[in-house]
Amino acid sequence: MNNKTISGFSKLSKRGKLKWIVENFFKDPEYTMKELQSYWHGNEDQQKVIDGFSENTISNFILPYGVAPNFIIDGKEYVVPMVIEESSVVAAASSAAKFWASRGGFKTTILGTTKIGQIHFLWSGDKNKLIAAMPSIKARMLKDSLDIVSNMVKRGGGVVDIILKDMTDKEPDYYKFTVSFETCDSMGANFINSCLESFSKSFCEWCMEADGFTDAEKDVTILMSILSNFTPDCLVKAEVSCPVEDLGIIDDLPPEVFAEKFAKAIRIAHIDPYRATTHNKGIFNGIDAVVIATANDFRAIEAAGHTYASLSGSYTSLSHCTIENGIFKFWLVVPLAVGTVGGLTALHPIAKFSLELLGYPSAKELMSIISSAGLAKNFAAIKSLITTGIQKGHMKMHLQNMLTQLKASDEQVLAATEYFKDKVVSFASLREFLQSPHEA
Ligand code: MEV
């Protein structure tokens, strides 16, 4: 019987780790070792960079790198890189981009770029003393962090404000500093966290040295110094609009009928959290794909988006639609804290190409591109849902995956693609089709 616990695993070489894994957890260690090794990068230096992103790596996990052409965003043409494992997302985004390219394209507005960090601390004493000391505490924090912030200040960013918040009505002795930052073209997580940790240290020192503070008041307990991934002030709006009649006939629906059905579908996503969740998931299909392709942090983006969608107290749609004075207007407002310099954006071998493909955008321009991809994907999903349903397009794409999985020959792929053009496809029906004799 194998011993499946190990100490010192992280100290093993990569090959040693893989060997231990395949020998202990796989039916065919030799085959698995070979397969997982086949995904190692051919270039050892590149592989080292990739391994540096994480720990205990034994192979690389591959996802498709696709592109959606025909995006016109604020008058500029883009081919948008998308990394996603779900079929039809790239096709849908491309087709929505093309649809809107001939109707003025996407227009975006950056509504803000500041990000928030928090220092949560416990302090007991006369809160008026703390409030009165804030200008002096703030000055000490800023002075002590000059080294950390100087580069960011040179680039036009830095610390925007530091505000003390009394939270003692919620939790005894609980206060926090809310610090706002401008991080220019970087996402800024490391910068923000370094500043916050420096501010915490300065604050503790300031209190220790403060004249007129009692022993209890000199004693601060810093609980956490960490950025907030909720970034409602790092916000972008992406919009498409056109006269209703310019929508044209869509899947046999006259433009007025399509527009009304579309607006109702958005309205339902505002009313019903079950629908809103799926609706926003569709938006994030587009957003995450570009966020990942540019090596930004999709967990942070998702977390912020879902909090923003809940701001009213119930979870609701991130996109909106109106039909007023014969104009169909569809828009999305979403927080997007992304960067185009620093972090993984500079290190990931493919992210570099994504940024080049996009013409080396600033962080603001990337916010515009990503929100447009989210809106495009949302438009495509709602358009399908209120006309043909999504399964037709979905299954058409999925058919190719199933054919690959069933190891169909080139002729079988052609025959099955033709046969299932107007039929519902499932694994069972496809397997049956492949096993039955049919004309090529
Ligand atoms: C599927 O990944 C996404 C959709 O369900 C989104 C939606 O329903 O709006 C099609």
**Strand tally:** 10
The residue fraction in helices comes out at: 40-55%
Strand content: 15-25%
**CATH class category of the largest domain:** Alpha Beta
- Can you name the CATH architecture of the largest domain? Alpha-Beta Complex
Helix segment count?
17
Main β sheet profile: 4 strands, antiparallel
* Rounded radius of gyration (Å): 27 Å
| Unreliable parts | none
Neighbour order of strands in the largest sheet: 3-8-10-9
| Distance between the ends | 52 Å
List the bound ligands: (R)-mevalonate
Structural class: alpha+beta
Q: In the CATH hierarchy, what is the superfamily of the largest domain?
A: 3-hydroxy-3-methylglutaryl-coenzyme A Reductase, Chain A, domain 2
- Compressed to H and E, one letter per element, the order equals HHHEEHEEHHEEHHEEHHHEEHHHHHH
CATH fold category name of the largest domain: 3-hydroxy-3-methylglutaryl-coenzyme A Reductase, Chain A, domain 2
Task: Please give the structural blueprint.
Layout: H1 14-25, H2 29-38, H3 44-51, E1 65-73, E2 76-83, H4 89-101, E3 107-113, E4 115-122, H5 127-144, H6 146-154, E5 158-166, E6 174-182, H7 189-209, H8 215-218, E7 221-227, E8 234-243, H9 255-271, H10 273-293, H11 298-309, E9 319-324, E10 327-335, H12 343-347, H13 351-357, H14 363-385, H15 391-405, H16 410-419, H17 427-435
Bound molecules: (R)-mevalonate.
